[in-house]
Amino acid sequence: MKISIGEYRQGLYKSVGGLIRVFLRKGGGSIEDIIFTGDFFIFPEDSLDLMAQSLKDVALDKERIQDIIGEVFRREGIDSPGTTAEDFAEAIMAAAR
Question: Range of 65's domain?
Fold first, then answer.
């Protein structure tokens, strides 16, 4: 995948489980595109893609984002030691500022 980093804002958040890095492209107050990276563990491996897909076109509201990520965690049986849905929401909001 090739992206132009100039279109994205970066957000960082240090959770107990590691650093979460978010690249966010926003449009009209909502998430247009989002990419997660970092030095944390998460299983299954496609969890980050599932979260990103679930967040497309969602308003940049921390509680709403946290609820959606939490639902993906539950539905997909995601295991990310030391890293929670709230941690991911914090990283997203850091990128949105």
Answer: 5-96
